[in-house]
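To: structure desk
From: M.T.
Subject: fold request, one chain
Message: Could you run this one when you get a chance? Sequence is below, nothing fancy, just the single chain.
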Amino acid sequence: MSCQPTFYRKRLLSPPWSYPILRTAMAHIHQNFPGNQGIAQLLGSACGRRALTSEEGQILEWCLTQIALEGSGPISEITRSLQTSLIAGCDWHSAVAAALLHSPRQWGSQLQSALLSFEEIRDEYRESEVAVFQFADGIIQANILQVPPLPGFVPTSAPEDPRTKRLFDLAESMDVSGETIELVKVLEDRFPHLMTRHYRVDFTGALAALFCDLGIESDKIPQLLTISALVALVFTASGSVI
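Reply: Done. Structure tokens follow.
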């Protein structure tokens, strides 16, 4: 005879979606999202202000994979922690938990800062009645004393990240390049006209512009980065090179 409490045995015999917390979460998912969405599409919809299209889900999946494959910064710290724990004989779940605890508290703060900045710029542009290049000039001049003038931008002397152009090309080819991405491109084009030190958007800025167009909320960035971390951990445990 089992010594487990009756309520616990009932929980084990019940399907997971019958648990109160999960039932509430599943009801929200079933109500708002169709059943044929991919994982990235579903995650993006859950972390945003609206349901993503299939194309938006595909480009979000590409972005999360690129973060997982980065192989430096926080990802390297997390994967190194996993390897250390596994070598020490820890089981998979304990090793993953320990690795995620190594995630820097400020991981994603630059992405969040750029997203919030771009949202503010986009909203201000929507209320503006001037041409887009004149609006961009005003934004740059208002922040010209800052270094960098805007989050998500780096000096052109910095090493170029090919993922930035790839992301913008994908967004355009999949018809998900929105108002924010276009504004960021105009800002990038206007820097040489106003400053002796030129700036370009980096991969973090490109991600922020895309997430802004997808309606991703800034406080949900850590959740999305955790998904990338989990992907990196699976690659690491399977022996793939990160």
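Reply (cont.): Residues 38-72+106-242 form one domain. Let me know if you need anything else for the meeting.
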